[in-house]
Amino acid sequence: xxxxxxxxxxxxxxxxxxxxxxxxxxxxxxxxxxxxxxxxxxxxxxxxxxxxxxxxxxxxxxxxxxxxxxxxxxxxxxxxxxxxxxxxxxxxxxxxxxxxxxxxxxxxxxxxxxxxxxxxxxxxxxxxxxxxxxxxxxxxxxxxxxxxxxxxxxxxxxxxxxxxxxxxxxxxxxxxxxxxxxxxxxxxxxxxxxxxxxxxxxxxxxxxxxxxxxxxxxxxxxxxxxxxxxxxxxxxxxxxxxxxxxxxxxxxxxxxxxxxxxxxxxxxxxxxxxxxxxxxxxxxxxxxxxxxxxxxxxxxxxxxxxxxxxxxxxxxxxxxxxxxxxxxxxxxxxxxxxxxxxxxxxxxxxxxxxxxxxxxxxxxxxxxxxxxxxxxxxxxxxxxxxxxxxxxxxxxxxxxxxxxxxx
Length: 407
Prior knowledge:
This protein is of the alpha/beta class. The chain has 2 domains: about 5-205 and about 390-405, 3-Layer(aba) Sandwich (Rossmann fold), CATH 3.40.50.2000; about 210-385, Glycogen Phosphorylase B (Rossmann fold), CATH 3.40.50. About 50% of the residues lie in helices and about 15% in strands. The protein has 18 helices and 13 strands. It has helices at about 20-30, 50-55, 65-80, 80-95, 100-120, 135-145, 160, 170-175, 185-190, 210-215, 245-255, 270-280, 295-300, 315-325, 335-340, 355-365, 370-385, 390-405; strands at about 5-10, 35-40, 60, 125-130, 150-155, 175-180, 200-205, 225-230, 260-265, 285-290, 305, 330, 345-350. The strands form 2 sheets. It has a 7-stranded parallel β-sheet with strand order 3-2-1-4-5-6-7, sandwiched between helices. The chain has a 6-stranded parallel β-sheet with strand order 10-9-8-11-12-13, with helices on both faces. Strand 1, helix 1 and strand 2 form a beta-alpha-beta unit. One of its GO terms (molecular function) is glycosyltransferase activity. Keywords: Transferase.
């Protein structure tokens, strides 16, 4: 029998998780049947046509309504009381460790009862969640009450910030396998998984479609123009954009002729705008706002390199996209980033949070001869094509699904 897989997600689709949409599409190209479950919709926040189309393919659990979820919970209790009570105990145990408490996890129990009922109706044989947060909790509860087995992908850094509150050990114990997107991520799971569960932990990278970016032309010769850097991502503390105005100002003082475009938005935008004004970098830094996939490709096409001054990451997909476009990456020695970007070959790496080192790296990149920058970009492109092609990664995932679900 061929396994039928359901992806189980919290809020989906979203602009920040387009890599999940691409992963699902790659699995479907390989003949894997995927049903999409999401707890909630963010329809108002979607602009990209592909995300809008994905929204139409997704079943939203909370749209079923409280009466339906409660009815499914009651039906599950009557049909399999021992398993249901075991799932309820698991929900209360996980809730006891979590700041949002047991009540939130009883809501997860109701969601799990509905997902279990729908999985049975649809012939789902395996659930896969992304992130070790509430979607993984619902998957664990589905399994505990007699529904299909599950796996989940851990990205970091959020899971590693609160592993006990998220009951990672319990979620790993109940899973068929757990995918970490980097060896660093797998090493962190070793810290929290029971020793007997270590063999469930495997590295399955995030991926992109390299061909979608490889067609971008090389940056034009400088010929007196400034070096153009781009940053792409949420304006959040962990992404470190707040350091860029000061680092850019220092690099300019060191002789760099450089411009920067910030693609994205978020809670830190006012602080970033204030930092730009305070450093006098308003003439060199442009805020472009959120862009769709096409806009991101255009931003990369106009850039000489991507800069990611992150304090915490999993394995940044935007770095893969830049590398596939032949753009080097200036980033930080954190998490899985050094597994992706080789210092001096595919880009430049600096200690996280070090403005002086970041400024030196910017100035160093600006001073490189054009042929060295192009060689670095070509090395980056080859690196991603060999290790992060989404179709190759989907094949690994499909094999894991088949192996662990008994299909």
